[in-house]
Amino acid sequence: MADITDIKSILYTEKTIELQENGVIVVQTSPKMTKNGLKEVFKEYFGVTPSKVNSLRQDGKVKKFRGRVGKRADFKKFYVTLPEGAAIANLSA
To answer: d(Cα 14, Cα 16) in Å, to the nearest integer?
Structure first.
């Protein structure tokens, strides 16, 4: 079962802020999160049932630090469309 701790962050970029004005929130989660799990979390913790959820899996970047090669963690990104007039409290950048 999905939990609120699986949500890593809400992404704030130029593109995502523009999407938020249209009722779409971009959420970064752990790779094990599913669409249905994310819907349950939104219902339980935010009191909003998303009308649409799109997802994509993103691989972590391979980076070098002091000559050693490392890899950032993989994550999933969800585009959550909220119903008309619905909002989530405390979504400030």
So the answer is: 6
Asked if residues 82 and 48 have their Cβ atoms less than 8 Å apart, the reply is yes
Q: And the tokens for 75?
A: 């994550």
Token pair listed for 17: 């802020």
Instruction: Report the candidate in 19, 9, 31, 32 with the shortest Cα–Cα distance to residue 82.
Output: 19
Question: Which residues does 12 contact at the CB level (< 8 Å), separation at least 6?
Answer: 93
Looking at this protein, which amino acid is placed at residue 40? E
pTM: 0.84
pLDDT in tens, 4-38: 888 999 999 999 999 999 999 999 999 999 999 99
